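User: I'm writing a tutorial on reading structure tokens. Could you give me a worked example: one chain, its sequence, then its tokens, then a sentence or two explaining what the tokens reveal?
Assistant: Sure. Here is the example chain.
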Amino acid sequence: MRNILLIGDSKFIFQEEYAQINNELDLQYIIANNGKDAAEIINVSPPDIILIEGVNTVIDSYDILKISQKSDSYIPVILFADKVSVEEAVNAIKAGVFNYIQKPFDPEKLKENFETAILFKNEREAELKTVLHKKVDDEHKIKGIVYESSIMRQLAKNIVKLAKSNANVFIFGESGTGKELVARNIHNLSSRNKYPFIPLDCVSFPATLLEAELFGYERGAFTGAVKSKPGVFELAEKGTLFLDEITEMDFHMQAKLLRALQERRVRRLGGKEFIKVDVRIISATNRDPEQAVKVQKLREDLYYRLNVVPVYLPPLKERKEDIPLLVHHFISKYNPSSAIQIKGIDNDALKCMMDYHWPGNIRELENLIHRIISLSDHDTIEIEDLPDHLKEYQYETEQEIFDTSLLKYSYHEAKKKWLERFNVEYFTQLLEKNSGNISKAAKKSGVSRKTFYRMLKEYNIQR
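And here are its predicted structure tokens:
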């Protein structure tokens, strides 16, 4: 149904000869006796068309036209009067009035004006949406990052700003929050996007191999070096080098990295010549970077070289309003490879996900949706599809020692579920407290590193 705001005291529109037009076009009229009332209506609930008879004594036609033009969506304004001079008509059209017509006019003429105004409004709104989407795309252009929360909206804006500069960026946040995805977006939106984006996971290489990976080596530089190989600095030439988990890099190796950044040149292992490099460095860690400096996991001088622009990536528990969007995003992502097409998620299951603390962040959520879709035999995610540790999770205060919901189980079942919940909470919190460092967390817990890994795998705890 189309809403038409009628301003003035004209009653002709409700006469019998116009009733058929109203029915055919499904029109509904809102009456405003004066310009002040009309302005309030336009601001609160913009109509589809505005009809004005003559000049209003409180707010004239052109004031109403200005108000309509400030509305979120385009509103055609039609003026009609007993007498219209050519000059008045021309001035009205120049001011932005859709049409200026003279009474009396037949019903078909009015119908034609309404139809044209509605068509024009639809086309104009489509244009405005295109412009709006383009504006949003220009502001964000973020790929793969799904968000609704204000904290992520600000992050998206910052990504675009950072892409326009050539400054080194330091991203910090918990594991599984998408640090590499943010780094890729910064690169893809930058002037370096025609050149390589090279990621390097610093924790994946022992110190003896990391230097060769960073700077490359010449043939015969060490046993097994049967041919020369460029390092990631050379491979990322004119592009971006992403150093993930930079705080896990050996302290001695950090000094060599700092020198390469300062001098903008590298020398391959076994080589004699220095090679000039032009790369942008984006670093990342799951630790608090300032704390990492204090405990000597990160050289202070290297930190200030890398941390020209810091970017904090919030954990999922700080952006829970994004969970519904993320769930549907991952459903769409994994549906094509599934025999059963998941249509959505029921409210109970979604509420359970909203209540959970997601220690593994987005990576944990994505893995869960992938697993559910892979095993599902029905088209809606239900609470029964969720793992026990998630659907039974509750935020507990320090005083809540026993969860009375366990009373519905037998003693042995309750004990098993309580132990499972304890293990999940214990190992998750211990891992978080030690910034994802398994060796350190295992030492604190008093269990072996092998046992610690087994517990993480058994309870699906994400690093």
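What the tokens reveal: DSSP finds 19 helices and 16 strands in the chain. Residues 324 and 350 are 7 Å apart (CA to CA).
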